Structure formats: C-alpha cells, structure tokens
Amino acid sequence: MSSILTNNGAMVALQTLNSINSNLSKTQSMISTGKDVASAKDNSSVWAISKVMESDVAGFNAISDSLALGESTLSVAAQASETVTDLLTNIKEKVVASQEENVDRAKIQTDIDALVGQVKSVIGAAQFNGLSLVEGTDDVKILSSLDRASDGTVTASDITVNRMDLSTSAGTYGSGTSLASNATASAAAVSNTANTAIVTVGNTWAANDVATLSVAGIEVSFTATGTAVADVGDGLAGLINGLGIEGVTATGNGDGTLTVSSTKAFEGVSVSVGETTAGDGDVLITTLNGTGSLTATSGDIDERAENIALSTSAAVKDGDGYKVTVGGSSYNYVAGKGESMEDVAKGLKTAIDSAGLADISTTVAKDATTGQWSLKVDNAGSSLAFSVTGNEGGKASGGLFGLDSIDVTSNSGADAALGNIETLINNSIDAAASFGSAQGRIETQSTFISNLTDALTSGIGSMVDADMEEASAKLQALQVQQQLGVQSLSIANQAPQSILSLFG
C-alpha cells in the first residue's frame, strides 16, 4: 500500500543517516582530540580510572621537582663537607709541623688561623635556597613518593636527610634531668703526685746472691757482696735510675726497701721481682699504688692521670651535656643526634684542651675488655679539684667544636692539637659520607619516579587514546556511508511522486 502521509522508506533512510552522522561525529571527535575516551559519557569506568592515574602523574611530577631541589641542596652540603675535609687536612699538616720545637710556631699559627677562617666561610656559604645541611641538628625530610593503598588511601613518603653540624659552636649546656650517674671521676682531685711500688728486701742474704727487679719490661740484677739487705735495696734503686726510663725513678730507703715511683701520665708501669740465692732471701712487692693485680712478685704502678669513666650502657641523646670541673673552671660538651660516649669523651677532651691550661693534658681511651670509654686528665702542677656531672636538655655542640681554639704556639697546645684535629677530620669525613649516601638514595628515587611517571602516562594512553589508523579508516568509510545515506533518503523522498501518475 502506498501512502502520501507516511513514507516508511524515508523514515528508515533518515534513521540510518542519523546513525551514520552520529558515528561520524564521534570519529571526528576522536581524530580532533586524539582520545577514544574524552569524557565520562564515552566510558565512565575507564574515564574515572584514567583521571585518578592522571592525578597521580601530576603528583609524581611535583615529587620530581621536590627530589631535584633536595638533590641540589645535598650537592651543596656534600661539596662543603668535602672542602672542609681538605682544609682540615691542610690544618693537620700545619699541626704536625708544629710538633718540632725548632720551627716558627707563630707563623704556623697564623696559617692555621687563616685556614680556620676559610672553614667557617665555607660552612656559612653552604646553603641552597636558604637551607643549610651543615649547621643545626634537625633532620630534613624530602618528599620522595606517593603511595596509594588498595582502598584508595594515599600517603606521602619521605627520605630523611640527617643534618651534619660542622659549625664550631660550643652549644648550650642544659638544665634538664641529671646525667651524673653516667660519668664517674676516679678521684676528687687531680695532682702531680707520683704513684709508687714499695719493694722490700728481707731475710738472709749472702755474698753472690742475685736479686732481680724488672720495671717497664726492663730487668736489672744486683749481686750481693754481703748480708746487708740495705745494700741490696739501695743497689737495685741505683740500677733502675741508671736505666733513664722517662718518668720513672727509684729511691733506696736504707732499710732494705726501695720505692719505685712513676709520674707517667697515661701509661702504667709493670714491676716484678725475683732472686737467686743460696739461702732464704726474699724480694717482695709489699705496697702498690695502682689498679693492677698485686702479688708478692709482680704488679702495675698506675698511671698518674685521673679519669672520667663513662657508662657502657647509657644511650646518648641529642642535647645531653657533660661537664668536667678542673680546679675552679668547668668544661662541657653537649652531644648531638646519633652520638655516643666516644663522642662525649672526645668532646670533653677538646673542651679542656681549648682552654690552653699549661699543666693539664688529656687523652681518650677505650677499655679493650669492657668497651668503656674514658677521658683521662693529667696535672703536672699543684693539686686541683676534679669532678664530673651531666644534664639533659642542652643545645648540641658543633661537629667542629674546638677548631677555632687550636693553638700550637706552646708545646702543650701543639700536643693537644694533634689529637683533636684527627677527631675533627673524622667528623667532616663522616658528614661527607652521610651526604653522599643520601645523594645516592635521592638519585635512585628520582630515576624511579621518572620511569614510574612514564609507565603511568603510557598506561593512561593505552586506555583513553584513540587508535588514529583505525579512526582514519573508519572516517573514510563513514563518509562514504553518509553519501549513500543521503542518496537513499533522496530516493525515498521521491517515492510519493509516483502516486501522481495514478491520477493522470
């Protein structure tokens, strides 16, 4: 049946043409935008996933900037610490040269002062965008990653960079909880009094009996010419004095005893006795001033120095300060983050040495058996009060504390400087090593973030980007379909014209 009111062919042709035009419009949009999923209506699930990933990519781009900033800051700090190490090595050369008395120490001191000034200049300039990693103790955190959990929760991750204070600051002694129990002084005073061993010659002696006495590993023998024990004692004393052992003297007391005295500051002296007799003569060590094990035939005369024994179990926290009093003056060191009792002992040594006391010398020692660190203080002058205490809550001393107090113009100053400069060089080397390690971490993380960003970007593209080859081919096909659709609609529209022939 034909109708002039309803043209079914035209409607079908029009619907087909509308579908073609819709597909053509979508294909043209894909070509112009380059995306297969340009909005949520195209594919809501894929679009949502791509947007989340795009936000992560934006975040990782910001992290790359953060890592670049951190890497630059670390590079400055590393360069500064390495430069300081070189300068301290130059100072060490000057200090070593000053050990010889036949040199112009005043000129050497001038050179050292100039190098110290250069060290301070390097530390002061070592900042990037106002941030210095070679002053202060607070850690610096560098944003390194965004971690997305399976439930969508996002957390930030950081790389923590430890500041390595290379300033010469003395710090500030605190007034917090007492730390006095962590350090013990061996005596209430430090003096120049010699320590002694009393050797007693007793019983019966005959001519040609031989008495032996060993001091500091050197043995002497006295052959008796008669029976008088006084002769044996005085004879042994004379032989010991004839050895010329530095800091060691012997005195015959005229009664068969002799006193072996030692003023060695930081070294004990071993003493042992013996005899070869035809009778029953005896040589015995009856009194010993020292810490060694005493028997009738051997013992150790203690070193003259007194010591500060530091705890083997207590931890050292940032701001823990220890104070040693010698005479009427106190000398303190305030520990920084990550330091140990070894650092405390060396810091206290530096503090005392920096005062330039003429009669006072110091050293640091570690017990090979217990691992205990101690500061030893010797006094070649009159007796001085000696004590130690400690408190929490201070501001840490700088890693180069004591550098600006190096003074090689005197024998004692030159001796003290030699030990202290080694500590300072080790501190600067530790700082450079720490910065180098952090640089490696940041470089690795920066490379990973760059690769991860590329991978995410590629993944997003595979989900939403259009296949341009496919779109191009589809466009041409749809354009042909559109032309055919138009012709089909035109033919369908001409169909009612044939009804006119029925009325001719």
Give a quick set of tags describing it.
504 residues; alpha+beta; 4 domains; 7 helices; 42% helix; rod-shaped; Flagellin; Flagellin_N
CATH architecture descriptor of the largest domain: Up-down Bundle
Secondary structure: helix percent: 40-55%
How does the major sheet shape up? 4 strands, antiparallel
**Broad structural category:** alpha+beta
- Number of E-state strands: 18
N- and C-termini, Cα separation: 19 Å
Protein name: Flagellin
Pfam families: Flagellin_C, Flagellin_N
Domain Flagellin C-terminal: 419-503
Keywords: Bacterial flagellum, Cell projection, Cilium, Flagellum, Secreted
Give a description of the structure.
Strand 14 and strand 15 form a beta hairpin. This protein has seven helices and 18 strands. The protein folds into four domains: 8-34 and 468-503; 46-162 and 427-457, f41 fragment of flagellin, N-terminal domain (Up-down Bundle), CATH 1.20.1330.10; 180-190 and 306-397, no CATH class; 195-301, Immunoglobulin-like (Sandwich), CATH 2.60.40. By secondary structure, it is an alpha+beta fold. The strands form five sheets. Strands 3-13-17-16 form a four-stranded antiparallel sheet. Strands 4-18-14-15 form a four-stranded antiparallel sheet. Helix 2 runs antiparallel to helix 6 (411-464).
Write a brief caption for the model.
With 504 residues, the protein is α+β, with helices and mostly antiparallel strands. The protein is 42% helix and 22% strand.
